[in-house]
Amino acid sequence: MSFVDCIEQHASILMEGALGERLKREYHLDFDKDVALAKMIYNTDGASALKAIWQEYITIARKYNLPFLATTPTRRANRERVEKAGCDSSIILDNASFLQNIQKESDVEMYVGGLLGCKGDAYTGEGALSTKEAIEFHKWQVDLFHKANVDFLYAGIMPALPEIIGMAHVISDTGIPYIISFTIQKDGKLIDGTRISDAIQEIDSQTENKPICYMTNCVHPNILYEALSQPYNRNDVVQSRFLGIQANTSPLSYAELDNSTDLKSSEPEALAEDMIRLRTISNIKIFGGCCGTDHRHMDHIARRL
């Protein structure tokens, strides 16, 4: 089954839970200051830890007979940061190959995504690019993922519409299916103040190959519930196009969580309950985890699905 068929035909899809926070707190690994997790595959301990965490999530997908989505840990591995880190284009190809090898060894319906991110701060929008700048800036990474033959592209925690549109233009030209994941607030808007419904309509109207769907990550499901409950997001556009969440375990805002020294978490049962509640107001089908989640949270979510 193709990735597009997976999204269109399955009612429930499991996406990976946290990687970064688990690598820090469970495995006590340090990240590169420029490309963050992307260098992990070159370190024996890092590669082993990544594989172990993904295998836990794969086991959960198998247990509950759910398709599984995983993405390369490359959100910060844009050309500018890769060069600062003393690396070259192989870091993108190698990360894709590493995860694709895990995919080949798995016995579940699994899809590998190439993860991209904004240039600036995903939580404040500071340093966001214009649409023209974004086209030039993101093309390098998008082209490499195209070369790596990933199943889909995933733009994670994107805060500002102009940069998102530029990135979408570049991805659209490749023909690779892709998901745009917004950084959103409880008022139902992106960090730059754009309503979710308006952002979806604008991106869809400006791209020849539209995103396969939209979602959010690094946010608690209760914040998303409030965001989707806003009157201007209660429409067919959002219902039909906004289909997923990778959830934080804390209901605090981005401003409260950013640079927090301790992990804000909630019990697996409570998070699963809040995740499933989203289905009372939306058609969300992709359920994954972000900061604070581990295999316990993902097991409870998958069980409820």
TrEMBL record:
Q: Which one GO biological process term can you cite for this protein? A: methylation
GO MF term (any one): methyltransferase activity
Cofactors: Zn(2+)
Q: Does the keyword Methyltransferase apply?
A: yes
Q: Which PROSITE patterns match?
A: HCY (PS50970)
**Which key words tag this protein in UniProt?**
Metal-binding, Methyltransferase, Transferase, Zinc
Every copy of the Hcy-binding domain together lies at 1-305
Which parts of the sequence bind Zn(2+)? C218, C290, C291
What the entry lists under PANTHER family is as follows:
SLR1189 PROTEIN
**What is the recorded name of this protein?**
Homocysteine S-methyltransferase family protein
Say which species the protein is native to: Variimorphobacter saccharofermentans
